[in-house]
Every structure is written in C-alpha cells, then in structure tokens.
C-alpha cells in the first residue's frame, strides 16, 4: 500500500517523464528542421525512452494498489539558439530529473517505503547514463564546432541509435 505522499510524488514523476518525452520530441523536430536527421532520430529514441520511464512508474503505482492520476502536460520549448544549445538544454534537463529522482528516494526513506526505494534504484543508475551521454555529445560538438565534415559524421553516428525497451518493462512481460 502506497502512502498518499508517495502516491502523489509518483504521479508527479509520471507527469515529469511525459513532459521529458514531449521535450525530446520537440528537440527531434528542431534537429530535423535544421538539417540534422541523425540527431532528430536520436531524440526520437530519447522520446520513446521517456515514455518507457513514465510507463514504469505507471505500472508500479498500479502494482502497489495506488491510483494513477494523469495531469496536464505543460508546453515545451520549440526553439533553441543552436545544436549545442539543444544538447546543453538536454543535460540541464537531465540534471533536474536526477534531482527529482533523488528527492523521491529521500521521501521513500522518510516514509519507510523500502519497496518504492528499491524500484527507484534502476532510475538512479539510468540518470548517471543519461547525464554522461548528453555530456559526451556536448564535448564532441564543442570539439567539432562548425566543421561541416565533423557535424556530418556526428549526425550519422547519432542517427544509428536504436530503441531498446527499458529493462523493467521488458522483464514485466
Ligand atoms: Fe526519464 Fe531522461 O530521464
């Protein structure tokens, strides 16, 4: 049984993950419109992954006998100054998500909800990866600057990314 506080926090996290999905779909559109189809594809995969994150929390609330309450999803940005700005905004956003997961983890400790704490461990590891990936792309973009061949190669590399269902969903099937 979930406490009201934990249930509310998990519902807020479902909303935050769906907002992230919406943000990355917007970034995908920006990349496609700016002649970077590989980066657009990379963000489309990111969009799918965030939907998975929302679904993991959704499944968990139901599994624990809680109630899922879907709230409106706020508007997302649609314009960025540059490709570097897009990826720097991605890193800043992921750092915010990490802080949200950490707050949730702290709440489970305060509420002595160790089952939810255990379920959050996958997200803690995932956030390390999310931040590292965004940082690596930023480093590459800074190194390449506006070198056309470098940008072409990076776009090609990022476009090779494929979607894999998140492990907690894959194992639930
Ligand atoms: Fe759901 Fe990118 O964190």
Automatic annotation (TrEMBL):
Reactions catalysed, semicolon-separated, are: 4 Fe(2+) + O2 + 6 H2O = 4 iron(III) oxide-hydroxide + 12 H(+)
A GO CC annotation recorded here is: cytosol
* Zinc listed as a keyword: no
Location comes to: Cytoplasm
Assign the protein's first listed, main location to one coarse class.
Answer: cytoplasm
Task: Mention one GO biological process in which this protein takes part, according to its record.
Answer: iron ion transport
InterPro entries reported in the protein's UniProt record: Ferritin (IPR001519), Ferritin-like (IPR012347), Ferritin-like_diiron (IPR009040), Ferritin-like_SF (IPR009078), Ferritin_DPS_dom (IPR008331), Ferritin_prok (IPR041719)
Tell me which residues make up the Ferritin-like diiron domain. 1-145
Question: Which CDD domains does the protein's record reference?
Answer: Nonheme_Ferritin
- Statement: the UniProt record of this protein carries the keyword Plastid: no
SUPFAM superfamilies recorded for this chain?
A: Ferritin-like
Binding residues annotated for Fe cation, in chain numbering: 17, 50, 53, 94, 127
UniProt GO MF annotations: ferric iron binding; ferrous iron binding; ferroxidase activity; identical protein binding
User: What's this protein's family per the entry?
Assistant: Belongs to the ferritin family. Prokaryotic subfamily.
Function statement: Iron-storage protein. May alleviate iron toxicity in the presence of oxygen.
Q: What is the protein's name according to its record?
A: Ferritin
